[in-house]
Amino acid sequence: MLTLEDVSVDIAGIPVLRRLSVAMKPGATYAIVGRNGAGKTTLLRSIMGLCPVRAGTISLAGHDLLAEPSFQRAVLGIGYASEDRVLFPTMTVLENLKLPCEAIGMTAAQASVRVRDAVAVVPLIEPMLPRSAAALSGGQGKMAALARALMTGTRLLLLDEPFQGLAPALARQCALALSQLHALRPELCVVIAESNQALLSQVTCSLLTLERGELKAA
Ligand SMILES: Nc1ncnc2c1ncn2[C@@H]1O[C@H](COP(=O)(O)OP(=O)(O)OP(=O)(O)O)[C@@H](O)[C@H]1O
Ligand SMILES: [Mg+2]
Asked: Which of 144, 171, 197, 213 is found 20 to 30 A from 6 (Cα to Cα)?
């Protein structure tokens, strides 16, 4: 349902993804592993429309994603939590969660339903909702960024290094949240980029290795 065919991406004139092809199914979780600088973030950003794709096609459930701007990909049900968990510090956690929904024109009632879903998957964010995003620890911010990605990610959830920097207890909570996701959204496809494969031990997923710009089953 997420299909990439012969996708090539260059950064600063250097090829990072080279004719990369992969097909990912709904209801499955995939982990992209690979050394630092292999291109994992570039791959997620290409799917989200945040970096130019030189050649190839990317489609989601029959929609040609490359024909759509990034915000339209959120409308199509893609959620993205970047490596550096950018939350707006002057806003509360709840406002941060609702922002992507407002940006794509959802009603307040629809956004509230999404908040309920996100809290069901990541319960520990509930007490954080009224707090300023500036007051969160790094790990809490990471969990809030996961919840925010769930707000638009009804079909496809892209998570860049979700475990990085989490204390062991929070990492367990995060893995638990990911394992409960499919109960709430059975058709959701989850793609996790992770440079430290050991952190994936608690997540049931198909492993794909990104090496020399290509994806291979690990
Ligand atoms: N803004 C940039 N300017 C120049 N080169 C960049 C830039 N961003 C990424 N690169 C290069 O693109 C390549 C792929 O980077 P990318 O961030 O996608 O890798 P990654 O697999 O996510 O790495 P990490 O595990 O460190 O997160 C790297 O060689 C990197 O040096
Ligand atoms: Mg990266």
From this structure: 197
